[in-house]
Amino acid sequence: MAEPIVQVHNVTKVYKRDSMEIPVLQNITLDVPEGEFLALMGPSGSGKTTLLNLIAGIDRPNSGSLTIAGTDIATLGESALAKWRSHHVGFVFQFYNLLPVLTAFENVELPLLLTNLSKKERKEHVEMALNVVGLGERMKHYPKQLSGGQEQRVAIARAIVTDPTIVVADEPTGDLDKKSADEILTLMERLNTEFKKTIVMVTHDPHAASKAHTVRHLEKGDLLEN
Amino acid sequence: MNVLKLVTRNLLRHKLRSFLTILGLAFAVFAFGFLRTIVTAWYYGVEASSTSRLITRHAVSFVYPLPLSYRDQIEKVPGVTRVSYAYWFQGVYKDNTFDNFFPRYAVDADNFLEMYPEFVIPKDQLETFKKERNSCIVGRKIMEKYGWKIGDIIPIEGDIFPGHWQFVIRGVYQGKDRVTDETQMFLQWAYVDETLKQNAPYRAGQVGWYAVQIDNPNDAPAVSEAIDALFVNSSAKTKTETEKAFQQSFVSLSGAILTSLEVISYVIIGIILLVLANTIIMSARERVREYAVLKTLGFNAGHIVGLVAGESLIIAMIGGVLGILFTFPTAAGVEANFPTMFPIFKVEASTIGLALAFSFLVGILASLFPALRSARLKIVDGLRQVG
Known about the structure:
Strand content of chain A: 25-35%
Order of helices and strands of chain B: HHHEEHEEEHEHEEEHEEHEHHHHHH
Structural class of chain A: alpha/beta
Strand order of the largest sheet of chain A: 6-7-8-3-9-10
Structural class of chain B: alpha+beta
Oligomer: heterodimer
Helix content of chain B: 40-55%
Largest sheet of chain B: 10 strands, mixed
Largest interface: A-B, 26 and 24 residues
Radius of gyration of chain A: 17 Å
Shape of chain B: elongated
Distance between the termini of chain B: 25 Å
CATH superfamily of the domain at 6-97 and 164-223 in chain A: P-loop containing nucleotide triphosphate hydrolases
Strand content of chain B: 15-25%
Number of strands of chain A: 10
Number of strands of chain B: 12
Shape of chain A: globular
CATH architecture of the domain at 6-97 and 164-223 in chain A: 3-Layer(aba) Sandwich
């Protein structure tokens, strides 16, 4: 049997606020096989976004190991971790987080600036990613000229344009109306089934979670058994 | 797209803010360049001085005259090849305003101007000047300023040498190079001396200073010492120094003003550094979340520093270049309108270099704090920022 692509073992995370220590995650162990579509659910403050951030390599655990796609990312330095993220992680945020001064095309192109691809190759990749999310006709539009749903689709195109090992999504439908949310969820399903992307998604929404293959619940920093 | 394009787009995000900051920088660099040009203009006389000429003057002060009889003794000092002399004539042309002031010297017509090859005079005009006692030679800029022609009579009301003087223009000199003052007037010392013999005989036979040409500039200290030794026991002791030191002593009179101007020029750079730093800090603070997103995508701390510092540098360099460009026409205007106050008012290459270097430095320093803060930002903290 193949190694899980995400291996979280005995991970603990504590935030420090002044002199106070706030435990957020306690001895979390989680394996995610390749090609999985996992939803992490739980009430506010349960630690689901923190766990997602740790998997994405944008935060560091206090203890435990995090092996993602064969790399123990907890041991990487800042620069190496940034490079690792650019190769392995596509991140979808709740509030899209597109750069307002760049067009849809340029926003999607951003992660490719860190690669050795030529301008022509970058263009091909960006066009392909935008076509996948159905925005091939809106490449020259700025974020303010797009609806919320369209902005999130551009953000998904940005997340997949480098063909990352895993896609992590933090409440990707949290800021959208039902119709747009359904479109985004359909797109996420497509990424998983058609493009074989491993997806870890944090959500409050049971409807969104129902699209995932597996749903895990967090409560007060503990990962509950299925 | 490349990272520079993102820097440029960020720059245009708040057009008015960027425009006003660039304008502020341009004015600051302009003020810096202008003040530096005033300071360098003051030193042109020193810069233009010859190393093979000495000046012998009264040991007490330049305003006390020396006897004409010193000339023959100075000529005999080993190393001296030629001796001439001059006297500050002054007088009033038209009125006593600064606008109508220009330097007027009574000189030894026989060889004074020949000792100063930087004053280029047609040979026939120089010969005529030597022959006619009441003639004068005038700098090109003064001729142009007053619209004079050769043959015109210039009336001067005497003050140091009282009387109604009239001098006929017999020649015009041009500067050999750009640092030569073209605003002076030379008249015959002999003409002044003859008049003194009639009106104030006790003042006749005296000169203001001697110009001494030497064959080897390296011998200047020894020759100066030898000249002064000749008159050490006389009633009019001398002080001999290089022409550069002589000119420098005049500049030193304005030393406090020049130092103030220099200090002010650096203070201006300091102020604009704070203005730019404020703008860059505001911009970086507004983009904390974007920097966190970029880091999430894989951009590292170096990229973030590049984005912040790049924007700061572009603003600083655009402002710097604009400021320098403003300085040129202003300097040309000053030179054209105040030729007697600033005979040479040119923006020096060193001033341009300094202004560009300071613009660059301001760009770097202003971005230092916000760039490092943004680079050190934790992604999770940045993503929590609202706005």
